[in-house]
Amino acid sequence: MSEPANPLSNQQLLNVLATYQYGIAIHYGDDSIIQWANDAMIAIWGKDKETVIGKSLEDALPELKGQPFIDMFRKVWREGITISGTNTAADLIVDGILQTFYFDFEYKAIKTGEGKTLCILHTATDVTARYLGQQREQDMAEELTALNEELAASNEELRTTNEELVASQEQYRVLYEELAESNARFRSMVRQAPVSICIIRAADLMIQDVNDAYLELVGRPRTEMENRTIWQAVPEAAEVYAPVMQQVINSGIKFEAKEHELVLIRNGNPETVFVDFAYEPMRSSDGETYAIMVLGIEVTEKVIARKSIEDAEQRSRLAIEAGEIGTYDLDLKAGTMITSDRFNQIFGYDEDVPRQKFVEAVYPDDLARRALAQEEAYKNGKLFYEGRIIHTDGAIRWIRAQGNVFYDKDGTPVRVLGTLLDITRVQQLNQQKDDFISIASHELKTPITSLKASLQLLDRIKENPSSAMLPKLIDQSNRSMQKISALVEDLLNVSRSNASQLTLNKTTFNISEMLNVCCNHVRVAGKYELIIQGDVELEVYADEHAIDQVVVNLVNNAVKYAPESLKIYLIVEAIDGYAKVSVKDNGPGIDPAKQVNLFERYYQVATSGFQNSGLGLGLYISAEIIKRHGGQIGVDSELGKGSTFWFTIPLSE
Ligand code: ADP
Known about the structure:
By secondary structure, this protein is of the alpha+beta class. Helices cover 44% and strands 28% of the residues.
């Protein structure tokens, strides 16, 4: 096939290009006069064809002023070069609005054979959509990268955090282990603590933990303490201590007690114990009491020991008071002395006085003895001294001072601590005893001498039984013998009553009848009249022989000490289940000051002379007999008005 004979005309060619999708234009000259432009280019420019063809670029598209394109066209025209660009931004007024578009373009100088520029072929494609798409993609890619980077960064952070987390997890683990360990340690501490510990949950008082010491304190096995409330486990303490514990739970304030006395049922047996204890609130971080820790120590032994010391102190104090013992504390350096009230009283003082007063009271004859005792005491540490003092009332008293000497580190005596007793009575008794011994010897000597004389005389006349002397001498010997045996009887009675051997043989008998027959020796002598008065029917339950002896003693005394009183009354009365027997004389009577001592052993009102031939034992023995019957003995007497000695004995068993 051959080519068409009539190839396309220039106009036809232009028409082809006119519909081409890319923009094409032909410019000419220094000012880039628009000679031709296809529809696509006109559309790019956003103008009417008629307004742009034949115009310079600047006139056709005034918005290009200030943009690089007009200069680029001039350069292409003048230098015959090609300038191209892709995605090049250009601001154009389209639809009346200045907008930015992007183009791929080419300004190409079309030259003649001589190399002269004929025109500029201008091609352009609007790539705005593509470009912006690319741009968006790029932005997105950038964002993505940024995002990625961020991600990477946060990933890194995450990794670090993770590592930290792992590390802190490790720390937690260690902490937890430590906690568990310290918890275990705490528990084992609780278990092994020497103090009794019991942990009680505040909400329901259930026992949470309890150590062996606590089990021992309450005297219960562990099985009786587990899964119970404290008061189920130890009910005997609930009454007193449940309110106290509740108070601690409510207030959060600890409760402490010392030496509380309580009864615990230990291993089934009630025991009184003393405990020091505390209810310690255990609080959570928000201050709430979630448990009570009971801490306790048994102090029973300590308390008992202390109490027994206190008791002993009390006893010795009572003993000192009851024993009328005066005490003193002498400071040898200062020369001062602290004395008890009783000490002061022994000297006759009602208040504390300087030591000098006591020293001055020492009986002058005894000063040397006292000095010697002190000297001894400083040497051997013990003071013992008996001597006389002059009481503030002027009377001489006997005292016994005892003490312990204390020394300083150099061995110098610095202090004496001791006791003081008034031993006047003891001394008096000793005196009486000495007197008694001489009286008793004297008393015995008289009848023995008489007996001896009688026997000598009898010996002389033994060859002459018809002698008128014989009966007289025998009679005298008998009387002497009787006297001796009476004296010996008295002495025996004293030692018997001393040894508590005075046994009673009690029967029921009529007193008057007994009084009628007793003292016949007095009646026979005829000088004295015995008059029985009162309740003649009265019977008593007593040792008749012993009571007879008492009456004989009293009647004999009346005869001896009231010889002028020829009538002696024996009076019987019943008083409150007792029989009262009185022996009344109208003799000289007895000084009231001396009456208190009458019934003591060896006591005699008048010690001078032995004319009354007594041993000072009659009333003492009588008193002993009456005491053993559970009765009383006494005397009512006034000087010059006679004496009534009386005793009482029970009517029945
Ligand atoms: P004695 O064996 O010396 O008589 P007593 O104990 O019987 O001892 O009497 C003690 C003292 O009581 C006597 O020494 C005497 O001074 C006094 N006494 C006893 N009875 C009487 C009395 N009826 N009247 C006066 N003095 C009496």
